Sequence to fold (400 residues):
Amino acid sequence: MSFLSNTLSRVKPSPTIAMTAKTAELKAAGRDVIGLSAGEPDFDTPQNIKDAAVAAIAAGKTKYTAPDGIPELKQAICAKLKRDNGLEYVPAQISVGTGGKQTLYNALMATLNEGDEVVIPAPYWVSYPDMVLLAGGTPVIAETSLQTNFKLTADQLEAALTPKTKWFIFNSPSNPTGTGYSREELKQLTDVLMRHPHVWIMTDDMYEHLAYDGFEFCTPAEIEPRLYERTLTCNGVSKAYSMTGWRIGYAAGPVELIAAMRKVQSQSTSNPCSISQWAAVEALNGTQDFLAPNNETFKRRRNLVVDMLGAIDGISCPTPEGAFYVYPSIAGLIGKKTPKGTVIDSDEAFANALLEEADVAVVFGAAFGLSPNFRVSYATSDEALKTACERIQDFCASLT
Fold:
């Protein structure tokens, strides 16, 4: 009899974290590796937010809080959702967790039973399917394609839904593609969901404020108010506010669901860090002036990467609407061989060879459920991106 839980055999470690760890290991060994695998901004946390954390420490706000967040943060979240999304919530409908991942996980743990299905468009954030599996559910993957700019169509969603479907997970702008759904495109999906009243919607809006070229973010409950009572709107301060290490995420939904999530959290981690919560209050209530210049920097970096990767024979690199990722296809490189004799028979082989032979770390597309692609995070300096893209160009040119 195995000592470990059978549940663990259903899931795998995060490939993005594994690649980031491998990059750090090679750097420590003296290799000049450029890491494009980590999904976190290189900007520092804004000073006003750091000051709020210091003030909280000085004021002794270092004790346990309510399991799912302090009242001041819940009020700030309610104000943000009304201000930015036109959605009305009260504090009893808000859950604050240790990062966005925990709020998603809590909801799945609180609602899934064996046999319940969760529809997930691919490519997807690597953790979605494994969190569903840990919670006892069954992920149902709905593949998109480069031809639709990695957007799920209404027909594809309709085909994926069954009487066993409990959740549909929706992420826009997307990790890993940066794809953002327009209001019209999202309305087509919400029209489908209106015909299936047993399906709940879990939205991951973490990249809401990272949008370019006039793209207007929208979220399902905003587009179709009749879905409000079966939508869990999830977000956090990690990406737009450069607060990845502070670990604050939140969700808004029906009181009964939020209470169930609170029960899960109270018996697992209990409250998020009290200092981080007060910093998040300032993030949401304080100045948002840094968002626009940060986005201009990201847009410039996006254009640099898209232009340089798009110039490579065998690679197609669409221009994303948001987030800080691109998701190029390497369909034209499959079957080629590296100078060291490695055959590029998959995107995983491509990513491994790129790391070993060109010192550039990316994440292979199979980790996100759609091949043959790879994900590049452009949340790093222009200089590093330019050098990395030059290395990728040289590497691809060396293939025979």
The first helix runs from residue 15 to 28.
